[in-house]
Design the sequence.
């Protein structure tokens, strides 16, 4: 599938409801457990997604539209979730993510992006030249990376409980490959 | 985490709502696309989950409670989704999965399983002796394997669209490891 803005927005607009159905009021054993030292729990992942909404995706999209390739994006703050989630409950984080995502997507829709806009180029500090189309596709795929991660982190908690069935459950053989 | 029946039921009872938020009325480009020949689309996965509700999990649980190790389970029909989904829309499948899952979990709750019940043993045709506790844990973890798979299958559709960001998206580096 090539990038299709409506498909991207259809997917991105659902993520708050998916996380809500998956995580809200689920026992802490599921939502606060991680895969070991320096790994993330589902709670941490939601904080990370909030950080992206607040400081990364929109700032980068605006930089492409306003400055093109002349300025590099600020690096993505991959550990902003500690700041975002301190002292908050998972329910608060889910509400905050839903609000920010809805605001951001409304703003993107308001831009009425054309095919020409989507082809506009910006500069990633490590990856070099990227397009607005690639940025918006990545925003949606980044949600999928983290749904994939949450499923894996939660399955990890039952690694022993499933006994010999662990051999058959693909999610228990996922090495994390960075997310 | 050792197996905790309430945690298992809390997770298992949410899966229909998660799939609903994720997939219902999403464009077909997302829900009907797979990862290539002989792989499954999200639509196929929902059909597979229906097959499990209808013919596998409950039948196995009842066999453990009624016959213990004296009889082997019937093999899991991993391709029953073709039968389950023929001629149906994704919305119909989501409704059917939600109904079957709710009925099955109500029945399990009605059994008022004790710790002794959960330790009861059955016989898997390939894995040998397993317990009811392991079966119920696997039922929940099997949902997670397929949420993990759906996230991966959907991200695959944007493999080209994300451009150079593919290097950073862990889900695009997942080899499927059997599900």
Sequence:
């Amino acid at each position: 599938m090539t990038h299709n803005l409506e498909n991207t927005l259809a997917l991105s607009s659902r993520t708050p409801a998916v996380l809500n159905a998956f995580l809200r009021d689920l026992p802490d054993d599921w939502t606060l457990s991680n895969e070991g030292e320096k790994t993330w729990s589902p709670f941490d992942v939601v904080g990370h997604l909030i950080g992206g909404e607040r400081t990364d995706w929109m700032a980068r999209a605006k930089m492409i539209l306003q400055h093109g390739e002349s300025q590099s994006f600020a690096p993505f703050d991959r550990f902003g979730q500690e700041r975002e989630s301190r002292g908050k409950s998972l329910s608060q984080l889910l509400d905050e993510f839903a609000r920010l995502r809805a605001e951001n997507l409304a703003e993107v829709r308001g831009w009425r992006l054309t095919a020409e806009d989507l082809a506009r180029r910006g500069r990633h500090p490590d990856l070099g030249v990227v397009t607005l189309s690639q940025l918006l596709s990545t925003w949606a795929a980044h949600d999928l990376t983290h749904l994939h991660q949450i499923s894996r982190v939660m399955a990890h908690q039952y690694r022993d409980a499933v006994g010999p069935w662990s051999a058959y459950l693909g999610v228990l053989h996922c090495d994390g490959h960075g997310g």
Summary: Residues 32 and 41 of chain B are 5 Å apart (CA to CA). Residues 42-67 of chain B form the longest helix (26 residues). Chain B has a mean pLDDT of 94.
